[in-house]
Design goal:
Elements (H helix, E strand, L loop, with lengths): L1 H31 L1 E6 L2 E5 L6 E2 L5 H10 L1 H6 L2 E3 L10 H13 L8 H4 L3 H7 L22 H9 L13 E3 L1 H14 L7 E8 L2 E2 L8 E3 L4 E4 L2 E5 L2 E6 L11 H15 L4 E6 L6 H9 L3 E6 L3 H6 L1 H14 L3 E9 L9 E10 L2 E9 L8 H8 L5 H12 L10 H25 L10 H9 L3 E5 L4 E5 L6 H12 L1
Parallel strand pairs: 6-12, 12-13
Antiparallel strand pairs: 1-2, 3-17, 4-5, 6-10, 7-9, 8-9, 10-11, 13-16, 14-15, 15-16, 17-18
Helix pairs in contact: 2-15, 4-6, 4-15, 8-9, 8-15
Length: about 500
């Protein structure tokens, strides 16, 4: 009986094993073969076996921008490469290009590149001589023209200095030089110097969910975060610095402005520079720096009882008008003001006395712009309030270019991630500035540009002399696409 029982158990386990293997095989088959709802009597089956088909065929637009602006090429020069030249298959320029193009095309995660490395179109953007990867050295890499996630990750994880015994992380970014690149790119865009440029400064939150270096709780935002500092000129990015959040919002702003305005003044000595920012930047050291260097500023001010008393009469008039019309009413005051302790001298302050449904709404701006250029109303409504457009650029940077993907462990690694995101933004802005001018998408945001222009299915055919890109015939923006391509070639 014991022998029969043991035999029965063995047979039962064998049958269960076969059943489990069959189930596992069926699951694998189901995952490889996607079955959709039937079309009448016909089955609808999806299989990832299209081979040389790219879903990002419109990305060639970015390649045309790079040929003209050389953004990636100049960014690659900010790295020091300590690898053995005999063992290099991916140059620094190719690695930087792969990372930046990937972000611009919507792939924020490095793991995405483990599949993207097969894409011949992305390899074409990067500049690979063999976009198919057929000539790779190792058999395991054949058919994969581009680098995988682990190789790209070394761009972010390599320290400022590479030790002699380091085996893998040997491509080091000079972050200081990299930050200066944005101002140089801005200067290269202009054939003739502008009469005046306005630099918008702002700090924002970059929420964190791990134990990253430099992580602190911020009481205003109500979560753990970084506090990056941005500087824009219109929609041109000039500075993007990742900082811990346990600091004053204006900390480092003077140092950033020194590095931005230095090259600008050197190339355009006669240009008028104006600084614009909210009350978080209303600091004595920033205003004094501007005054000493002939830089104009318009900075928001936090309300206090002394400032409110200055606009009391104007507020009564605004409230009286509101009572008659039932609509928000505002008046403006222009006066000289000095704090009791923090300011070194009296300065011009603009006060907005506005009454809105249910309550007064006072706002104040301190400036050294003379009255002859802007009266109180025009300075507040037409000039200062225009800084709100910068917030759209920051949202575009964080949401569309993934500037908030600061999940690596070290502060340096996350700063490099923000830097790559900023490069991708500059590349997209180059497309907007050069290719989209005069079209219906001239002011489109990065996400819209990606969705309408890049995400096009196309078959790639590579011959001895040509690379053929066969776009989808049903693509709805063909005329716009052709117009943009024409702009980029001119």
């Amino acid at each position: 009986m014991g022998t029969e029982c043991s035999t029965h158990k063995i047979e039962l386990k064998a049958r269960q094993g076969i059943k489990f293997q069959s189930k596992e095989k069926a699951e694998r088959k189901a995952l490889e073969r996607i079955e959709f709802e039937p079309h009448g009597r016909k089955e609808v089956i999806g299989v990832f076996d299209g081979e040389t088909i790219s879903s990002d065929a419109g990305g060639l637009m970015l390649r045309e921008v790079e040929k003209r602006a050389r953004i990636i090429e100049q960014a690659a020069q900010c790295f020091a490469d300590g690898r053995d030249p005999a063992k290099i298959e991916h140059t620094v320029r190719e690695l930087v290009g792969q990372r930046v193009y990937g972000l611009a095309l919507g792939y924020e995660d490095l793991n995405d590149h483990n599949d993207l490395r097969h894409d011949p179109l992305l390899a074409l953007l990067v500049g690979k001589k063999d976009p198919t990867g057929a000539g790779r050295k190792r058999d395991a890499d054949k058919g994969k023209a581009l680098a995988g996630a682990s190789t790209l990750n070394r761009l972010e994880l390599t320290g400022a200095e590479v030790s002699a015994g380091e085996r893998y992380k040997k491509i080091s970014l000079d972050l200081e030089e990299g930050m200066l690149l944005f101002a140089r790119l801005f200067l290269q865009e202009h054939e003739t110097p502008p009469r005046r440029i306005v630099l918008d400064l702002d700090a924002t939150d970059d929420e964190l969910h791990g134990g990253q270096e430099g992580r602190f709780f911020h009481g205003y935002y109500g979560h753990y975060c970084y506090l990056p500092l941005y500087v824009f000129c219109d929609n041109a990015l000039l500075w993007a610095e990742l900082r811990p959040s346990n600091i004053d919002p204006a900390k480092g702003s003077v140092e950033a402005l020194e590095k931005i305005t230095g090259p600008i003044r050197e190339k355009w000595p006669g240009v008028e520079i104006v600084i614009r920012a909210d009350s978080g930047f209303c600091r004595e050291y920033l205003m004094s720096w501007c005054e000493e260097r002939g830089v104009c500023y318009a900075l928001g001010m936090a309300k206090n009882s002394r400032l409110k008393s200055k606009v009391r009469r104007a507020m009564k008039n605004a409230r009286r008008r509101y009572g008659k019309t039932g609509k928000a009413s505002r008046a403006f005051c222009d006066f000289s003001y000095r704090t009791r302790k923090s300011w070194s001298k009296s300065r011009r302050v603009i006060g907005k006395a506005e009454y809105i449904p249910g309550k007064p709404n006072e706002r104040f701006v301190v400036t050294n712009i003379p009255l002859q250029q802007f009266d109180a109303r025009r300075l507040y409504e037409d000039f200062y309030c225009a800084r709100g457009e910068m917030e759209n650029r920051i949202k575009e940077q964080q949401l569309d270019m993934f500037a908030d993907r600061t999940s690596t462990e070290t502060m340096r690694g996350n700063r490099i991630r923000l830097w790559f995101s900023s490069l991708a933004y500059c590349l997209m802005r180059g497309l907007r500035r050069i290719g989209l001018r005069g079209t219906s998408m001239a002011r489109a945001q990065c996400g819209t540009i990606r969705e309408r222009l890049f995400k096009i299915g196309a078959r790639i055919r590579i011959t001895v002399r040509k690379v053929w890109i066969s776009y989808s015939q049903s693509y709805p923006y063909q005329s716009l696409f052709k117009r943009i391509a024409y702009n980029l070639r001119c």
